[in-house]
Design goal:
Radius of gyration: 19 Å
Oligomer: single chain
Strand content: 35-45%
Order of helices and strands: EEHEEEHEEEEHEEHHEEEHEEE
Largest sheet: 17 strands, mixed
Amino acid sequence: MTRSATLVRACLRGTDGGSPTAVIEEPRRTGAAPGPSPERPWPLTDDERRLVPGLLGASHAVFVTPPAPAGGGAPAYALRFFTSEGELPACGHGTVAALAHIAARTGAFDGLLRTAGRVFVGRARRGGDGLIHAAFDPGPVELRQPEPAAYDLLLPALGLGRLPAGPGGIASVGRPRLLLPVADRAELAALAPDVGLLRAACDRLGLLGVYVYSAPTREGRAAARMFAPSIGVDEDIANANSTACLAALLAEPGRPLTLTVDMGDSLGHPATLTATARPGPDGRPRILLGGTASG
């Protein structure tokens, strides 16, 4: 059964680069339909969804189902995210791509999105530059310190010989990943991980991957690289949820923080993400993620 698919470049830097992300619209499945037809196809199976990123030349795919008619609470677009390895509970740049896709068809969007774990707010609208500017709430970030043995496994896989000097930790918005600082952009650019060794280490530690970042400048600009071979992505062009995790890690109690993070340069796809952290009523920072996309 064929599906229409759109390849959205999410988290552009200016008008260039971005992470090519497959966006597929899926119909709502209701008991009223007797079976699939060219006009009303059933959703794909999960095994079929896993094939989509590779078929379309993307690392990730997001499947978007429109909201049900009003009457059962606030309508929300349902999102599901897949790589070749299977389904993800969350995907930041996939959410940016989905928001851009919705806004390109509706003119603008300011409403609710639903994943398997939660319902959250997202918005997107086309700017004067012709690009779609999207932002969303990635949800609360859980932070903890890694066990020292984790560094014994991960640092050799990354080709690093010393413990990080700056703030690092294990952070989760759906699945845990290690946030690892390096001295500067030059050290970040020089990384050449052993992908097999890194995957084995991440699998053993139960991590999605490792997000390596340079210290932000005084203006709040940093660079990062995300290695996630455990989900079939040796290196991610743009990883928005990890950028949300970084904002939560670096935010100081009671003080707002704005970050701009460059990614993808090592892959020839420059990407940029923004994250703001604001003090929340419970003392934990509230994060808003943003990115631009082609529509």
